Amino acid sequence: MRRHLFWLLVAIVAGVVAHSAFALFVPGWWFSREVRQLARDHGRNSFFILSPDEQAMLLPGLPRFGVTGVCVFDVSEGNVTFAADLPDGFWITTIYTDKADAIYSVNNRQSGANNFTVNLSRAPGLIEQLLKSTEKEAIDEIDSGWTVTSPEPRGLAVVWYPTPEIGLRSIAAEQVGRSRCTAGPAGEG
Amino acid sequence: MRRFIWATVYVTVGVAAGCISAFALIQQAGVKSVAAGDPWQTRSAALAGPNAFYVRSHYLLEGRLPPAPSQLGEATAETDSDGRPLTGSCTYVLASTGPLPRWWSLGIIETADAKAALQTTADSDTAVHEADGSVKISAATAPQAGNWLKAPDKRRFTLIYSALSSSARALEPPFSITRGACS
Q1: Which of A7-11, A67-71, A97-101, A132-136 has the lowest mean pLDDT?
Q2: Residues of A in contact with B160 (CB under 8 A)
Q3: What SS3 class is residue B115?
Q4: A165 φ, ψ to 5°?
Q5: Closest chain A residue to B114 measured between Cα atoms?
Q6: Which chain B residues touch A21 with a CB distance below 8 Å?
Q7: To bridge B91 with a disulfide, which of A57, A97, A163, B140 should be the other Cys (CB 3.0-4.6 Å)?
Q8: B75: domain range?
């Protein structure tokens, strides 16, 4: 009886560990395959327009007529600059980590301009933050509206621009495609 | 030898139960009806709540991005307003239940999996409005007069609704779903 109780406790511990490991790692690993595939097909730190099929995979709830532009960014080796150059009309720009955590989102009304630049950088770790606060440097690097720090080294900057009919998609794609994503701070790309 | 077998059985059962419970929690976390007794269900509202980690995991396992928080909301319906499953054997009339947001989109997918191929969509740019400003959309396998969403032949389907979430009505039921004739 006591032996079975011991192994029952072992089973419960194994269950808790498996539950935590599954929830923490499996979804992120599963989605990062999709992100890696996009990066392989289109390159990192470059802006590209998704095909309707790719858009259906990544944002299935949105109409196929719309235009979705993506930059798979990697800030592990330095900052990345996303320079949006969007047409008039309704659009949404959202920056996600590769764990699908939306860290920044703005639409045309909130932005007030169709041309803007977002500087993407890696968020400092806990130890780095502590060191900086000790050195009283942190105040110099507080986010402005156009600087985004990502807790993950990789992520996606996504621009979505709906168009009312399929015939307008290629024209809108050309306009949205003027946006740029480049490694390095603004002005160096 | 017997002890080894028991140990293996207990650990295997524990690991399997842990993985299954995590998967089940991820699938169910944050899912709630848009309004009591309404067929529309949403999980995008929970992206900012305490279940956000599990809700995000749901989207990750589907290999897709969640709707941009505070920008877009998303809801799905698998039944009509009387609770009967949506099927291509019947026609349905979807009628807006109030003012719609500045941008919205309504589409049909073949299964409950939101990643399944979208059949057709009607949206704020393409839908024809009634004289009183409301919107009526037919969902059927055969073409219908006015706004029409093509339903899959004889099979069950799911409606997926996306809309700007900045409006006051973002979390209210967007369309009533009334079943018409069935074959």
Answers
A1: A132-136
A2: 60-61
A3: coil
A4: -150, 160
A5: A60
A6: 18
A7: B140
A8: 71-182
**DSSP annotation of A112:** -
Cα–Cα dist B107/A60, whole Å: 10
Q: What is the pLDDT of residue B171?
A: 58
**CATH code of the domain containing B92:** 2.60.120.600
Residues 126-145 of B with CB under 8 A from A: 126
Which residues of chain A are within 8 Å of residue B48 when distances are taken between CB atoms?
none
| Best CA proximity match to B161, nearest among B142, B179, B129, B135 | B135
Kindly report, residue by residue over A21-57, the tens digit of the pLDDT: 999 999 999 998 888 888 899 989 999 999 888 888 8
Q: Scan residues 153-172 of A and list those with Cβ closer than 8 Å to B.
A: 156, 158, 160, 162-165
- B13/A60 Cβ within 8 A: no
> Sign of the CA dihedral B139, B106, B158, A33?
positive
Q: How many domains does chain B have?
A: 1
For the entire predicted model, the pTM comes to 0.81
Is residue B51 assigned to a domain? Answer: no
Per the CB < 8 A criterion, the answer to whether B147 and B93 are in contact is no
Q: DSSP letter at B37?
A: T
Paired sense of beta strands B136-140 and B147-150, if any: parallel
Of B16, B60, B74, the CB nearest to A27: B60
Is the residue at B66 inside a domain? Answer: no
* CA–CA separation, B76 and B162 (whole Å): 9
Contact B10 A11 (CB under 8 A): yes
All residues of chain B having their beta carbon less than 8 Å from the beta carbon of residue A11 are 10-11, 13-14, 17
